[in-house]
Design brief:
- The chain folds into two domains: 254 residues, Vaccinia Virus protein VP39 (Rossmann fold); 215 residues, no CATH class.
- The chain is built from 21 helices and 20 strands.
- The strands form three sheets. Strands 3-2-1-4-5-7-6-8-9-10 form a ten-stranded mixed β-sheet, sandwiched between helices.
- The longest helix is centred in the C-terminal third of the chain and has 15 residues.
- α2 runs parallel beside α3 and α8 packs parallel to α9.
- By secondary structure, the chain is an alpha/beta fold.
C-alpha cells in the first residue's frame, strides 16, 4: 500500500533540487554567457532555483516562480526576505498544466531563462497510483495503434512539459536550463529537430542523480537556446558540470546519432533491407504461459505441476538466456496459442483438450490482463506471433543488455525456439543464410554502425528501429565485403 506522502511524491515527481546543485547550475549558466532579463521557474517547489537565480543574476529585472503546492510556496515566501532585490520576485500558486503560458509569454520582452526541474515521473506511473497531476490524455507522440497500446505511448511528464514550453517560447529569445532524465533530454531535442524548431548553444551535462536525488537513473542538465535561424541540430555531451571536453551528438536521417564520426563513415549502410527484425512473444502472463522442466515434470510460475500435450508447447529462451549465452540446454517452454495474431483459439479444445482445460482453469489470470491489445481479441490470445515465429533458424539479441552479441539459434528437439518480448530476432528457413547473416552482424563494420546509433544508458538500449536501420542486403555487396576484410585485418593486427 502506498502511503499518502509517497503517493504525493510520485504524483508530483517531487525531487526537490538541493540548493548546492541549483547554485552550481546557475554559475554554469553565467559561465556560458547567459544573462537573462526575465527568469521563470515553472515548478519552483521550495524555490531552490528562485533563490540561486536571485543571487547569480543581479541584472534580471523579473523572477517568476510558479508552484501548485501552496505549502511549498508559503515556505518560499517566508524566505524571500533573504534574497537580494526580492521585489522583482513574483510567486504564483498555479498548475503548470492549466496556467496560461501563452498570455505570459506574449507580455514578456527581453532575454528569457526558463530554469528548473520538471517532475521525474511517467504518465503510466501516475495512472498506477490514480494520480491526476497530468496533461490531457493524448497520444502526443502520434504512435500507431499497436505501438500506443503496447507501451510506446508511455511518456515522461517532463518530456510533455518541455515540449509545451518550446511551443510557447521557441519564437522568443529564450534559454532553457532544465534538470531531467538524459533520455528525456534526447527525446526533446529530437522533437525540436523533427519539427524544425531551431536550437543552438545546446549541451547535456551529466549529473549524479543518486547523490543529489537518491534516484538510480541517468540524468543531466539540459541547456538549450531557441534559435529560429539555426539549421544545425548537433549538440554537446559533457561528463559532468565541470567538464570542458564534450563529445558531439547529432541528428541524421531523422534519428539521433551517438557517434557521428562512425555513422557518417558508414551512412551508406543505413536503410531498410529485406530482413526484418521482430520482437518475441508477448502474453503478459508468465505465471501461466511459461513453464519449466523440473525433473520429469512441467511446473508453471505458480509452482503447480501441470500435464499438457506437446502440441502448443515450444522451447523458450528469455532475454537473460540470450544475453548470457545460455542457449544450449533449454528447460523452459512457452504456450503458443496462435500461429498468427487474431487467429481463433477455440480449436485448442479439440486438438489439445488438456491444454484447453489448463487455460480455462487459469482464465482468471489471463482474462485480467490490462493491455488494450487483448480487448476484443480471441480468448487466450498472444501477440508478437506470425510465420516468422516458427522458422527453424533465428538470430537473436536481447534489447536490455549493453552488448551486441548476436546468437544463432536452431531447432530444439524438432521444434522452433521462441523468445520472450525482450528479445529481437531475424528468422530464416535455412542454416546457410542464417550463418552468413550472423557473420555479417558480428563483423566490426556492422558493430560500429549499430553502436553509433545506440545510447547505452537507456533502459532498453537496443531497439528494432535501430536493428532494422542496418541494410544487410547492402552489406552483402562486394564493395562492403572488401571493406570488411580490410578492417578485419586491421582489428586482428
Amino acid at each position: 500500500m502506498i502511503l499518502a506522502t509517497q503517493k504525493k511524491r510520485i504524483e508530483y515527481g517531487d525531487f526537490q533540487t538541493p540548493q548546492e546543485l541549483a547554485q552550481k547550475i546557475c554559475r554554469k549558466l553565467v559561465e556560458h554567457g547567459i544573462n537573462p532579463e526575465i527568469i521563470i521557474e515553472p515548478t519552483c517547489g521550495v524555490g531552490a532555483f528562485v533563490e540561486a537565480a536571485a543571487h547569480a543574476f543581479p541584472n534580471a529585472r523579473k523572477i517568476i516562480g510558479l508552484e501548485i503546492n501552496p505549502d511549498y510556496l508559503g515556505h518560499l515566501r517566508n524566505r524571500l526576505v533573504q534574497f537580494p532585490d526580492n521585489d522583482r520576485i513574483n510567486l504564483i500558486n498555479g498548475d503548470f498544466f492549466k496556467f496560461n503560458w501563452k498570455e505570459l509569454s506574449r507580455n514578456l520582452k527581453g532575454t528569457i531563462l526558463i530554469v528548473g526541474n520538471f517532475p521525474w515521473v511517467t504518465n503510466s506511473q501516475q495512472g498506477s497510483i490514480g494520480g491526476d497531476n497530468l496533461p490531457d490524455k493524448t497520444n502526443f507522440q502520434n504512435h500507431s495503434g499497436f505501438d500506443a497500446m503496447t507501451g510506446k505511448s508511455n511518456f515522461d511528464i517532463s518530456e510533455w512539459m518541455l515540449i509545451k514550453t518550446a511551443e510557447q517560447f521557441h519564437d522568443q529569445n529564450t534559454y532553457i536550463a532544465m534538470l531531467c532524465k538524459t533520455t528525456v533530454a534526447r527525446k526533446f531535442l529530437k522533437y525540436l529537430y523533427a519539427h524544425k524548431l531551431g536550437f543552438s548553444k545546446t549541451g547535456l551535462f551529466s549529473i549524479d542523480a543518486k547523490k543529489y536525488f537518491g534516484a538510480s537513473v541517468e540524468a543531466c542538465l539540459l541547456i538549450c537556446k531557441f534559435d529560429a535561424t539555426a539549421n544545425n541540430y548537433d549538440y554537446d555531451i559533457y561528463e559532468n558540470l565541470d567538464s570542458k571536453n564534450p563529445y558531439r551528438v547529432g541528428h541524421r536521417k531523422g534519428v539521433t546519432i551517438r557517434d557521428l564520426e562512425s555513422f557518417e563513415r558508414l551512412a551508406h549502410l543505413y536503410g531498410n533491407g529485406t530482413h526484418k527484425w521482430r520482437s518475441g512473444i508477448k502474453h503478459d502472463c508468465s505465471e501461466v504461459m511459461e513453464l519449466q522442466k523440473v525433473g520429469n515434470n512441467l511446473v508453471n510460475g505458480l509452482g503447480e505441476i501441470v500435464d499438457l500435450e506437446n502440441t502448443f508447447l515450444f522451447p523458450l529462451l528469455k532475454g537473460s538466456d540470450i544475453a548470457n549465452n545460455r542457449t544450449t540446454d533449454i528447460n523452459r517452454f512457452s504456450l503458443v496459442t496462435q500461429k498468427i495474431v487474431g487467429e481463433p483459439t477455440h480449436f485448442i479444445r479439440h486438438l489439445a483438450p488438456k491444454t484447453w482445460r489448463y487455460l480455462e482453469k487459469h482464465s482468471s489470470y489471463l482474462d485480467k490482463r490490462k493491455s488494450k491489445i487483448y480487448k476484443d481479441s480471441p480468448r487466450f490470445s498472444i501477440f508478437g506471433v506470425g510465420s516468422y515465429t516458427f522458422t527453424p533458424w533465428k538470430i537473436a539479441i536481447c534489447g536490455l543488455y549493453n552488448n551486441l552479441d548476436f546468437r544463432l539459434i536452431g531447432k530444439r528437439d524438432g521444434k522452433p525456439v521462441v523468445f520472450d518480448d525482450t528479445v529481437y530476432f531475424l528468422s530464416f528457413d535455412n542454416e546457410e543464410e542464417a550463418n552468413r547473416i550472423h557473420e555479417l552482424l558480428m563483423s566490426p563494420i556492422a558493430q560500429d554502425f549499430l553502436s553509433s546509433l545506440i545510447f547505452w544508458d537507456e533502459k532498453r538500449p537496443i531497439k528494432t528501429s535501430i536493428l532494422n536501420s542496418l541494410n544487410l542486403d547492402q552489406m552483402q555487396g562486394k564493395q562492403i565485403l572488401k571493406l570488411f576484410e580490410k578492417k578485419s585485418k586491421k582489428y586482428k593486427a
